[in-house]
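User: Please fill in residues for this 205-position structure.
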């Protein structure tokens, strides 16, 4: 395992306050959140995976009358989220071992899932599926092509990885999701690559 990938949780624990300050309330993701919300029922239950401090994304979902559950592996992030948004549900949990025994109308892994190493990303798709209600929307960000990249945050290495687009499509399909929206390096959203999938109706016996 890449040691920089192993360090992600510790990095965000050490620098939660700095991250909250630098992230601020600027919502460049607004159009994508609106697209995501358009696939949800009224008062949808949304699972924010790697939610950080809840600002600004969970705030926007709460203002749209979603019932938000946020999970993050950094307790320091969750503590900030609880103080800012006491009306939501916040849990300290590592997405890689997530087992809430609940399903949600929407699942969001915005700029979080892409910190996982490639094999860990592959293992996330059954986890997404187990937490998705019939017809649930799943939105996540990735890189534009397969590979790893190391940025920096607070002078420490910040790991990112991506699978190939064809593999994301295969993983979504094999776990019951249809791709309903996908843009590579959206120039209006920080050149992020964004996916929205929708869970197909499960067959009943």
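Assistant: Residues filled in for all 205 positions:
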């Amino acid at each position: 395992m890449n040691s920089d990938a192993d360090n992600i949780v510790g990095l965000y624990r050490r620098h939660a306050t700095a991250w909250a300050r630098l992230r601020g309330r600027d919502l460049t993701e607004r159009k994508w959140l609106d697209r995501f919300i358009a696939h949800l029922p009224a008062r949808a239950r949304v699972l924010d995976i790697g939610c950080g401090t809840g600002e600004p994304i969970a705030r926007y979902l709460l203002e749209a009358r979603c019932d938000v559950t946020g999970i993050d592996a950094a307790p320091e992030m969750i503590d900030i989220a609880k103080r800012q948004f006491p009306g939501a549900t916040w849990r300290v949990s590592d997405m890689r071992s997530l087992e809430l025994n609940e399903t949600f109308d929407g699942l969001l892994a915005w700029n979080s899932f892409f910190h996982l190493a490639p094999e860990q990303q592959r293992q996330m798709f059954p986890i997404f599926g187990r937490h998705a209600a019939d017809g649930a929307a799943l939105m996540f960000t990735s890189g534009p092509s397969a590979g790893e990249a190391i940025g920096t945050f607070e002078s420490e290495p910040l790991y990112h990885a991506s699978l190939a687009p064809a593999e994301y499509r295969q993983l979504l399909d094999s776990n019951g999701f249809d791709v309903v929206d996908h843009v590579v390096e959206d120039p209006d959203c920080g050149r992020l690559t964004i996916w929205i999938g929708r869970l197909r109706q499960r067959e009943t016996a």
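For context: Helices lie at 3-6, 8-14, 16-23, 30-38, 57-63, 75-84, 118-130, 165-174.
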